Amino acid sequence: MASARATKRFMKLAFTPMAIFTVVLVVPFATGFYYTFTDWDGFESTKLVGFDNYIKSFKDPTFWSTLRFTTLFVVVSLVIVNLVAFGLALIVTSSLRSKNILRTFFFVPNLIGGVVLGVIWQFIFNSAIVALANKYNWEIFKQSWLQDTNKAFWALIIVTVWQSSGYMMIIYITGLISIEQDVLEASQIDGASPLRTLLTIKIPLMAQAFTIALFLTLRGGFMAYDVNVALTGGGPFRTTELISLHIFQDAFANGNFGTGQSKAVVMFFIVALAALVQVSISKRYEVQR
Amino acid sequence: MRVKRSVGKKVTFIVGLILAFAYIFPFFLVFVNSLKLKPEVLANPLALPSHITWDNFSQALTKMNFFRSLTNSIIITVLSVSMLIIFSSMLAYYLARTKNKLSKYIFLILVTSMIVPFQALMIPFMARFAQFVSWNNRGALIFFYIGFGTALSTFLYHGFISNIPTEIDEAASIDGASDMVAFWRIIFPMMRPITATVAIINALWIWNDFLLPRLVLTNETQTLPLSTYLFYGQYTVEYGQVMAGLVLAVIPIVIFYLILQKQFISGISQGAVK
Questions:
Q1: B251 vs A: CB within 8 A
Q2: B225 and A79 in contact (C-beta within 8 Å)?
Q3: Is the pTM of this model over 0.95?
Q4: What is the CB neighbour count within 10 angstroms for residue B246?
Q5: Whether A11 contacts chain B with CB within 8 A
Q6: Torsion angle, alpha carbons of B172, B175, B180, B184, to 10
Q7: ipTM of model
Q8: Which residue would you say has higher pLDDT here, A154 or B100?
Q9: Any bridge partners for residue A38, and if so which?
Q10: Residues B108, B111, B116, B118: what is their CA dihedral angle, to the nearest 10 degrees?
Q11: Alpha carbon A88 to chain centroid distance?
């Protein structure tokens, strides 16, 4: 009787979303994993091939350079985005009268999708800056940054920082204002300098905000696609392809569904592992209140 | 002490001002150049237009099919977000109020699934759903968004429902209300703050999403990011028109943000802390 009622409850409340979730997410994930061990060509698979697809993927030198480029991108963007975002959060939670309007400005790039942002910055790097450099004779800007792999890397970082620091700022603001006022007053009475208060009281008490923001930037860095496509398109000569774009090109442009999907599975394991390590390290710094 | 603090305040203010300027400047640049003719853009991108032309905008409006893309974006975002709210709030209610093995496993699977990057599914995904997509690609896209958005939305609702005392449900059930009636008439209206959060987080994601629409949609059903990207690719050298197109692409969401600013900020901080 009780279980009949439970079943009825499940059917009414949970069945539809779980069915859609399973069809859209669970089934493709499982079949995708299975396909990597077959000779799947995007339409059908005839036999199991063991680890062939993975071996082929790891023998592809462009895959290695993509992995290196992506790792570098994730690490650098993670550090800079969070430093900038934390700085913005400090400015916006200070006693400035203009703090609300500043917060509005810092958040705006975040509203707009990576593609539109990427295109805006492509115009800036390719046309606006180059036109100015020729006019005023600035050597480093005379050739577009997007035509040089190293400079294009920094262009990607600049746009990513500009885009996502506003979002992370909100998370840090939430952390900063959750600190109890009496703790801060006590430290002020004890004569702690603002820097000292920041380092030994505020940051430890808001460690949870760091856990979340670091997790989101880590995941976002590995999954970055839109800015990459719109800003550099992977060029010059596929040297600035992040892993997402690399997989997309491998599968949909070159028709290598087997290796494309194996690389995607590798990406999944890298993201899961990195996130797990990061969260478990960050959690250790969180203070129980 | 007081002098020192007011100096610090001034420094903060100046740094903040410079940064705010840097954050806004790219948009300013785009807007200024959208009002110029092509040679003027190239001569000096920073200068104000010597004579304002709106011609770029009328060109961009037709060439990127602005109103068609805007309508598509609105339809897809509104339908996906509403369905996500309906389904995930019910699912969360079920998970929070039913304590058995099944609900525990479902919750665990949902939370774990949030770490799976879309890229890990997209290839088998497109192969599997090719037929569905060719039959009705907007419908398919909405269906996919419901699938991908369920985990996070349910998770957010779950946290909120867990804080609503069960006595409220019990009272309703004693009064003879069924599960559905109790949920929609009593619990759901209490969840307005978290519904706002779920709506904003999902709307921002779906409105700006590019990769999935790029795989799924055709010409007639393009969303705004897609048509902006294609328009840019096709007319890159028509600087003025491209800039006008970018202004058009940015305006709707910025207006929406300025109207609902408070909800945006609190929505994101709620969503992150949970």
A1: no
A2: no
A3: no
A4: 27
A5: no
A6: -50
A7: 0.86
A8: A154
A9: A48
A10: 120
A11: 19
